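Task: sequence in, structure out. Protein: EamA family transporter.
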Amino acid sequence: MSLSARHFGLAVLVAALWGVSFVAIDAGLEHCPPLFFCALRFVAAAVPAVFLVGRPGVSWRWVVAGGLVLGGLQFGLLFEGMRAGMPAGLSSLVLQGQAVFTAGFAAVLLRERFTGRRLVGLAVAVVGIAVAAVDQVDRGGAGPLGAFALVVGAAAAFGLSNVITRKAAPPDALRWMVWISVVPPLPLGVLSVLTEGAHTDLRALGHFSLTGVAALLYVAWGATLVGYGLWGHLLRHHDASVVAPFALLVPVFGMSSAWLLRGEAITPLAAVAAVLVITGIALASFGGRRVAGTGGPAAGEGAVRDADGRGGRGGADGPARTTPRPLGAGAAGTPGPQR
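Result:
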């Protein structure tokens, strides 16, 4: 079933919300240490929403695992990498490497096997990430390359969180994101005090500008609550295969908004990397069915399924809620993704 003009616009809007969130993160990091800003982001996403959305509908162990991996590890590494010099637009692209890591973790932990076309797509995406690494070296040598490695680590954590989400099979994407947002603030706050210093955190709070507040609220509310809410709405009305491709627009919005709002150059190498990564993920995500596996969507989608584990279209009660993790939302809280 094709999307109506309204739903098409909503799908593009969600991709834009998640893509622009990288610019918001970049702006927020100018006012706050990365781990502390990350902790504040999850506090703002969880409160007061956690009191309004109902229970997550999954075992609490999955909530804790998802919160630690997605919230603490993925976003902690992403924020650290961006603070260390990784450009916002390039970060939105490199984080799409999560599709490669999702496939790897799914193969090892879920014993999934994939078609040749999907493997070719993943290989193309890996080449794109390698090109992005070369571009990052050209931008500034060993320091930015270390920042690049942190964002690749964030992509790996994103891939692991996709597998956790697939195993947890939460019935609703928004509730899942809100509840796993409850977990990271405490460990991130402790790490921030130990590594960034309580004095630095308190000083950041005392000097929080309107730009910093706007960036925090955008990442927490716009990208997470609004973005995931709209994404879940679309997936209640359409097949995942119709909606999920719009997540490929996330790095497009991420790189273009970084260029427009932050003056971040899109170099020829970055453009080539973007084409390779997006093309590779498109092949990997929509290039045919798995040969075998334990159930769930193609690697890179990270399903959020009905509690009974069913996927696909629904019966008399309407479409089944098969809600893939967006390919790039995770960055934003998401996506995210995101997410």
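Residues 5-331 form one domain.
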